[in-house]
Amino acid sequence: MEIKVNESDIDGALKVLKRKLEKEGLFREIKQRASYEKPSQKKKRKRIEARKKRMKALRFKKRT
């Protein structure tokens, strides 16, 4: 990942970097790996995430 800093605008570059990392889900993954997650909880979380993803796709499909 590459972030360009224009004229020593470090605050702006840091903001862009954080936004990109958040979009990739890095912070969420770090939080999840901080503690053990039981296999049953993991399956349930993945099922909920998949459902949210499907619903979001349907919403955007209806708009177009």
Write down the overall geometry: flat
Specify the number of helices: 3
**Integer tally of domains:** 2
- What is the residue-mean pLDDT, rounded to a whole number? 90
Secondary structure class reads mainly alpha
Helix content: over 70%
User: Low-confidence parts lasting 5 or more residues at pLDDT below 50?
Assistant: none
What percentage of amino acids are in beta strands?
A: under 5%
The number of strands is 0
H-E order: HHH
Q: How big is the Rg?
A: 17 Å
Give a description of the structure.
The chain has two domains: 1-33, no CATH class; 37-64. It has helices at residues 10-24, 26-33, 39-63. It has three helices and no strands. The protein is an all-alpha fold and 64 residues long. The chain is 75% helix and 0% strand.
Précis, in short:
This protein has 3 helices and no strands.
Descriptive terms for the model:
64 residues; mainly alpha; 2 domains; 3 helices; flat
SSE topology:
Layout: H1 10-24, H2 26-33, H3 39-63
